[in-house]
Amino acid sequence: MFISSPRFQLWLSSPEQDWLPWSLLLLSLMCETSAFYVPGVAPINFHQNDPVEIKAVKLTSSRTQLPYEYYSLPFCQPSKITYKAENLGEVLRGDRIVNTPFQVLMNSEKKCEVLCSQSNKPVTLTVEQSRLVAERITEDYYVHLIADNLPVATRLELYSNRDNDDKKKEKDVQFEHGYRLGFTDVNKIYLHNHLSFILYYHREDMEEDQEHTYRVVRFEVIPQSIRLEDLKADEKSSCTLPEGTNSSPQEIDPTKENQLHFTYSVHWEESDIKWASRWDTYLTMSDVQIHWFSIINSVVVVFFLSGILSMIIIRTLRKDIANYNKEDDIEDTMEESGWKLVHGDVFRPPQYPMILSSLLGSGIQLFCMILIVIFVAMLGMLSPSSRGALMTTACFLFMFMGVFGGFSAGRLYRTLKGHRWKKGAFCTATLYPGVVFGICFILNCFIWGKHSSGAVPFPTMVALLCMWFGISLPLVYLGYYFGFRKQPYDNPVRTNQIPRQIPEQRWYMNRFVGILMAGILPFGAMFIELFFIFSAIWENQFYYLFGFLFLVFIILVVSCSQISIVMVYFQLCAEDYRWWWRNFLVSGGSAFYVLVYAIFYFVNKLDIVEFIPSLLYFGYTALMVLSFWLLTGTIGFYAAYMFVRKIYAAVKID
Per UniProt, what is one Pfam family of this protein (predicted)? Predict the structure, then answer.
């Protein structure tokens, strides 16, 4: 067994290792086999000269945020183009996995091979094709290929600022995903038309009589630009690369036709890396040490502040409850002030109870989905090698968690004296998902206009609608029905018939000021993790630190709950009993800081200048902020509701 720390992946490659107890419980439904692997990523054994298929995934750019399929550019094509059947997550990510004409054989070298060779004639790019290629190069597009489900990476050798004698010692090797389509130099555009593939294999231990088997453990590429005149090709599709640095790069002039050769070479190297550890190359690209220090710092600060807040509020509450429960004379009772005075109004139903319960139901749905996804991903079941699995799982889980969202919304709606449960169930099932679908559909229309592979195809959109109305809607109705029929939450005090007059509030009790104050602590717990998540989404990085993310999620829940309790306590002490909506809005205050951080990230980290990429960024950011507000608002609301019920149950009410 191999558990990569801090990556929290679960990979098992040896039958002799013992299972951890919790692994046995989680995987008890699976039969015993000689080895266990995450579904869909079992190793493939190759023999000498077995074909290793190179497939293309897509073209991506952090400048445009618009993925394109591989053959949207005039690359060499095989005799028959075959697209892989993709799962829902791959389609939503814009992956279009397709075969390529690269001929790679296991442990078989190729010095130089020409693609699209027809009687030794070069490929001619038309003016329109040349313009398109030049445009993609200036937009910093990367090409993503895979071999044995392993993404291609470009090696980057970085040197620290030391003396010249120490350069070799201080060389730092990093990898970036894919390879650059080309580069620009002095207003000229050059295409990488030669790919030097370097594949690493691990030789498996076999018995003496058996043939050796190999497993692919790393896939690197060195892209080169070599002009047509410097590539010597023969009629057998072989070619000779120029020696040294004598060659000039292949320029692409967007104003005329361009002739060039697409070529590649293959080099194999033996590696000690085992198949179970082959993803480490891609998952160690960021500085984990900085991540560790940041996470530990956030944990210490949040728990320290939470401890102080808890101690203050518990001591204050004990004093309040002790004073309120004393049987003093009537004059002292008349002079009381604070949260006990609003006991007859604190549970008065708010305005728009149906919308409030619907939003909170969607918040519960999101909470259950996120908790399960992070936990399962932490165990390694949704590793990056299971392409698209994370998004597919999240979509289906959100649909099936509708039963819990409906149940909580139905019970709360009945507690708030609601009667139209059918309308409430429909509102719960359609309000938040409808907003998400509407924004995504509008953005999708713009992506369609750009002919990007990131556009969700019409059949997939119909399938999502069928999932929404065929799975999520009935489950929400089912949960809502049983939640509405269940006994409502038992409020410890009765509500007066005549509402109490609310005194004039201080400036710091303003709703927006409350959002600013309440959002700092939860945001402080997660803003470092937010940087890694944004990098994964907008800069095509792998996100794999789900162990850290699970820890941060727990801290987020704790901090949201405690800050929400403090805010509702201050509000009730100010004799303002209209806490339902206010607490829901204020508890989600960290979403405001997420929005501010997203704007900061857009300005400082991304190089997006065009309208449609900017629209996509802020459209998807709006969805993230809305979802995060629902999540944190729901956590804070239920914590505050439990707190309010608890404190009013602890005092004597005449």
Answer: EMP70
Q: Is 203 helix (H, G, I), strand (E, B) or coil?
A: strand
Query: Which residues, listed in sequence order, are joined to residue 105 by a DSSP beta bridge?
Result: 51
Residue 417, phi-psi category: left (phi > 0), alpha (psi -120 to 50), beta (remainder): left
Q: How does pLDDT run across 189-230, given as a tens digit for each residue?
A: 999 989 999 999 988 776 666 777 889 998 999 999 988 888
End-to-end CA gap in the chain: 65
Distance (Å, rounded) from C-alpha 424 to C-alpha 350? 15
β-pairing, 98-99 with 54-60? antiparallel
Backbone φ and ψ for 211, nearest 5 degrees, come out as: -75, 145
φ/ψ of residue 173, rounded to 5: -95, 125
Q: Quote the tokens at residue 358.
A: 């619907």
pLDDT in tens, 265-291: 999 998 888 888 888 777 764 555 666
For the beta carbon of residue 637, count every other beta carbon within 10 angstroms: 28
Q: Check if the beta carbon of residue 589 is closer than 8 Å to that of residue 518.
A: yes
CB-based contact 47:91 (threshold 8 Å): no
The span from the CA of 164 to the CA of 166, in Å, is 5
Residues in Cβ contact with 534 at an 8 Å cutoff, skipping those fewer than 6 apart: 598, 601, 605
pTM: 0.83
Work out the angle between the directed axes of helices 546-573 and 580-587 (0-180°, nearest 10). Answer: 140
Q: Would you put residue 186 in left (φ > 0), alpha (ψ -120 to 50) or beta?
A: left
Distance CA 652, CA 654 (A): 6
Within 10 angstroms of residue 174's Cβ, the number of other Cβ atoms is 14
Helix, strand or coil for residue 578?
A: coil
**Contacts of 54 by beta carbon, 8 Å cutoff, 6+ apart:** 100, 102, 104, 145, 146, 147, 197
